[in-house]
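Batch queue: ligand-bound targets. Current item pairs a single chain with flavin-adenine dinucleotide. No template structures supplied; prediction is de novo from sequence plus SMILES. Inputs echoed for audit trail.
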Amino acid sequence: MSFLKDAIAIFKKRELVFIESYKESENVYTFRFEKEKDVTWKAGQHGLFTITHKKIKNGIRPISVASAPAENVIQLTLGISDSPSEFKKAMLELKQGMTVKMSGPVGSFYLKDDSPIVLIAGGIGITPFRSILKQLEAEGNGAGKQIHLLYLDSKKSFVYKDELDGIANNTSITVSYLDSREDLQQEIDKLSGMYQNNGNYYIAGPKSMVESVSTQLQSNAISKKSIKKDVFYGY
Ligand SMILES: Cc1cc2nc3c(=O)[nH]c(=O)nc-3n(C[C@H](O)[C@H](O)[C@H](O)COP(=O)(O)OP(=O)(O)OC[C@H]3O[C@@H](n4cnc5c(N)ncnc54)[C@H](O)[C@@H]3O)c2cc1C
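Prediction returned. Tokens below.
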């Protein structure tokens, strides 16, 4: 059913009008686009974005929508190295009023039920979780729930930290900022020991990080069906 919904959504292409971009931290940039009234998505989903202002090879990327449906904007945040791909160079060239195309949003990386939730982000993998947490806060849904965000960033940049701290202050959601894999492993052992298969575990980030966290969870007897993954290729 959700496959069918995705298949329909993917054919829905729309032009998004660029508003602004800004640097979040070293090698991380946010891009904001106008949100037309009829655009909807589930917090955590991603769109397929295409460059339209020039012809480039491989001009399409899956990117999580980092804003919440409750916000009045479509926001993307990208890791952009000092020698960016053609796609990311083109993103940095965007000027107010220019457009990109978006298909979707699609995917099953969104919260399904009320059970304890452990969100695990590696670096730029924080983007779908910003959307999820902002939406919970906007709906007044974060109160009294057992929701934990484990945020690993070895560079200690912690993009969105101020916003995440604000959400943690307004809700029962906890946020742990971690800068080593060992600390992350410890937190995962603690939470998976506490919630076991009553919890749902969401992992987003670079492939190696997502796979190693998933392996750790499974070796802690967490079943595959309690684990959801968003693998960000290219990091
Ligand atoms: C669901 C989802 C959500 C994402 N959300 C974000 C986001 O919010 N922010 C963000 O910065 N990035 C996100 N990404 C990753 C993004 O799509 C790009 O892959 C990434 O930003 C690197 O793009 P690039 O243009 O710098 O490098 P690229 O030119 O795309 O590639 C860099 C390297 O990765 C390899 N590669 C690319 N795609 C694949 C693939 N599908 N399988 C195996 N290898 C591959 C290439 O061969 C190359 O070696 C997301 C990816 C997915 C799947």
